[in-house]
Amino acid sequence: MATNDVTATLIDILARRVPREVLSAHPPDETRLESLGVSSAEMINVVIDIEDRFEIEVDETRLYQFRTIRDLVAAIEATRRERAG
Question: What pLDDT does 49 receive?
Fold first, then answer.
């Protein structure tokens, strides 16, 4: 899956909890996760959706290291590469 596809899929996942207008206000490289207004509890659901959709396991302890949507996309891609090995 190409970076654009991962980004689009992640935005679809986030759009279940955040209005698309908020998601599209800035490019993914600039959209800070904290600016989306997703609660900690909702973020756990986002992680579960990511794990299911991308068939990966996300280390929740690293979750708060991700500052932007782009950071999260990069982590998904890195995890998938590691898994493919």
Answer: 95
Neighbours of 36 (CB within 10 A): 18
Which CATH homologous superfamily contains domain 3-84?
A: ACP-like (1.10.1200.10)
Q: Across all residues in the chain, what is the average pLDDT?
A: 87
**Domains in the chain: boundaries:** 3-84
Task: Tell me which of 6-10, 31-35, 61-65, 67-71 is least confident.
Answer: 61-65
CA dist 60 to 17, 21, 54, 79, Å? Answer: 19, 27, 15, 13
59-85 average pLDDT score? 86
Which H helix or E strand runs over 71? Answer: helix 69-84
Find the angle CA(20)-CA(22)-CA(27) to the nearest 5 degrees: 95
In this prediction the pTM is: 0.85
Q: Which residue has the tokens 């995890």?
A: 79
